[in-house]
Structure of LysR family transcriptional regulator:
Amino acid sequence: MDIKHLEYFIEIVNSSCNLSIAAKNLCVSQPSLSLLIRNFEEEENVHLFERYKGRLQNLTPAGERFFENAKILVQNYQNMLAELREDSFQFKGKIVIGIPPLILGIVFADLLSEMLTTNPDIKFEIIEAGAYELRRMLTLKELDFAILLQPTNIDPSTMNEHLLQEDELTAFMSSSHPLAQNEKMYWNQLNDEHLAIFNSTFMIHHKLLEQFKKENIQPRISIMSASWDFLLQVTKHSKFITILPSPVRDFFNISDIIEVPFHHPITWKVILCQPKKDRYSHVERHVKKIIIEHFGKNGDHGFMSL
C-alpha cells in the first residue's frame, strides 16, 4: 500500500468497516476499495478484517496493529509535507501571546519591540489580561503562548513550561517611612502597617495573602489596584507600603521612594507556557526560540537561560 491506500484503509476502519460509507467519504467506488483490501491481503498473505457473509466486520489482531501503525505513518507524512510547505516561506503567520499587564510592562516591552521589528511577516496579537483569564484561554487553546507566574496551577500533562526570569518581591515606601531605614526587613514588621497592593486578579495578591497568613500578621490593606505605577505613587510622601517585583525599580525615577528587600522574600518566577500538541508550526518554534534566547542573553540580571 502507498500513502493514499493507507488513508483509504484508515477511512474504512473509521467508517465502522462499512465500504459504502467509506467510498462515499473518499469519493471513490466501493468495488475499488474492496479490491484494494482483497489484493493487499492476498499479496501479504494476511487477513486485516474479520468477515461475515463476505462483509467486513471488525479488524483482526493483525489488522489492529496495522491500523495503529498506518495512522502513525500517515500522520508523519502529513507533518513532513506541512513542514516542507512552511519552509518555503520565511516565518509567515500569526502568533497569539497572552501576557498579564505587569509582566508586559516591566519584562516584555523590549522583547516585543525586537520581535516586531525583526519579523515583519509575523502578525503578533497580544492579549493583555490577568492570570486567571489567560489560564482559561490556554486551556481552550486560544493562545499559542502565555507568560505567567509560577505556580501556574495548570495541569502539567497539558502544558509545556519554561522558566524565563526569577526575581523576588520587595517593599517600596516613602523615604520618610520608619521602615525605609532598614537594609532588609522581616515580614512581621508589616503587622498593622498600611499596604497598597495588587488586586485579586493578580497572582502576587494571592501570594501575599498566603505569606501574611503563614507569618500570622495582619497588615492594613487599604488600597488595591491593577496599576503598579499607581501603587508606587501612593507611597510617595505617605505611610503606605507597596510590595512589587524588584525589577520595577528599573522603570521609575522617584527619588523619594525607597526599595527594601525581605529577609525571606517571595520568589517571582516568570514562566513561558505553551499548550502541548503533536506538532508545532514553523512560526511557533521560531518565536519560542526568540523568547528563550532573549532571556538567556540577560542571565546576569536575574534571567535564566534554558
The mean pLDDT is 87. The first helix runs from residue 3 to 14. The chain is about 40% helix and 25% strand. Residues 93-164+269-301 form a domain with the D-Maltodextrin-Binding Protein; domain 2 fold (CATH 3.40.190.10).
